[in-house]
Inverse folding.
């Protein structure tokens, strides 16, 4: 995963140097649902409630707070978790990792999560691990930016989530309790993301 992150960051910097806009979630070799489930330590549904960026160790991270509705895979001691994504805004700088997932406060999501060497949770394979759920009346749809960019259409949310539950149940793996937030995270100490209330690539780009 670290190798993937370093490669993506290099691609962003190359694009900046040559005046090329970083690509959105496209040109992916998409994982199947089975592989996505197998490569994730946790799978949850919930709502994004808060986001802020911070600098740590010379890098910029964005901490995304999610209120958990249901845990499909994994174990957490809290109904609220904070996942960490590389990239974000700090002062006059913005770092955006190519094919990062986009988040919006209030958004309902299905998240496939993996942990780094410190146990901090992040989306599995960047945008491939983040699905948006939209509800209108009795209809609910779910979509993934990487899959949409590759020509796939939104699916019925309940049916897709039921499929993920069945795949997770087939693994029958007993997991240890997972970390609910980065150890150095303190809410309110970073830069609250309020512009458009989202974590996304803006038209004006700043790179460290």
């Amino acid at each position: 995963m670290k190798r993937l992150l370093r490669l993506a960051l290099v691609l962003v910097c190359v694009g900046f140097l040559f005046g090329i806009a970083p690509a959105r979630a496209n040109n992916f070799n998409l994982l199947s649902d089975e592989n996505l489930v197998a490569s994730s330590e946790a799978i949850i549904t919930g709502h994004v409630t808060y986001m802020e960026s911070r600098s740590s160790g010379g890098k910029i991270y964005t901490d995304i707070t999610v209120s958990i509705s249901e845990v499909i895979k994994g174990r957490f001691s809290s109904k609220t978790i904070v996942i960490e994504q590389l990239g974000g805004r700090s002062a006059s700088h913005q770092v955006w990792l190519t094919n990062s997932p986009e988040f919006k406060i209030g958004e309902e999501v299905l998240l496939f999560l993996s942990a780094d060497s410190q146990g901090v949770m992040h989306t599995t394979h960047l945008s491939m691990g983040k699905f948006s759920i939209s509800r209108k009346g009795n209809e609910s749809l779910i979509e993934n930016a990487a899959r949409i960019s590759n020509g796939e259409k939104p699916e019925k949310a309940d049916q897709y989530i039921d499929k993920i539950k069945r795949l997770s149940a087939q693994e029958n793996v007993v997991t240890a309790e997972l970390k609910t937030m980065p150890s150095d995270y303190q809410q309110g100490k970073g830069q609250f993301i309020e512009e458009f209330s989202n974590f996304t690539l803006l038209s004006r780009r700043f790179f460290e």
